[in-house]
Design goal:
Largest sheet: 4 strands, mixed
Structural class: alpha/beta
Order of helices and strands: EHEEEEHEEE
CATH superfamily: 2,3-Dihydroxybiphenyl 1,2-Dioxygenase, domain 1
Distance between the termini: 28 Å
Oligomer: single chain
Helix content: 10-25%
Strand content: 35-45%
Strand order of the largest sheet: 1-4-3-2
Shape: globular
Radius of gyration: 14 Å
CATH topology: 2,3-Dihydroxybiphenyl 1,2-Dioxygenase, domain 1
Number of helices: 2
CATH class: Alpha Beta
């Protein structure tokens, strides 16, 4: 249903290495580089970061959020650790989240510009 998403960033020189490190555990890498935007994905750009000069950090209640599918709980853990090592803050540590309709394992981080990124998997055990 969704082909790709775009995230605004205030500084590409900071954002590109951040996302390269954070996305690597999920098998997502930089595929396209343009002067004011960079596309990340597995086979085609599914997540774009776009330079917005003069952008202020997003407000904590902005609601901006994307979720990326991981293959395993280990990938979710590695995503969270890599993002924190690259400068993210943790919004929610990796954990199992049982809900009435579905049981999933996820972690949430906030990038240096305030974008919320989640990694999720649906364990069978």
């Amino acid at each position: 249903m969704i082909d790709h998403v775009s995230l605004a960033v205030s500084n590409l020189e900071r954002a590109v290495p951040f996302y390269e490190r954070a996305f690597a555990p999920l098998g997502i890498s930089r595929l396209v580089t343009r002067p004011a935007m960079v596309g990340f994905g597995k086979t085609y750009p599914e997540v774009w970061i776009n330079l917005r000069t003069g952008m202020q950090r997003l407000a904590p209640d902005s609601g901006a959020h994307i979720c990326l599918r991981a293959k395993s709980t280990a990938e979710v853990d590695a995503f969270h650790a890599a993002a924190l090592a690259a400068g993210a803050t943790s919004e929610s540590a990796p954990s199992l989240r049982p809900h009435d309709r579905v049981r999933y394992y996820a972690a949430f981080i906030i990038d240096p510009d305030g974008n919320r990124i989640e990694a999720v998997t649906f364990p069978n055990d």
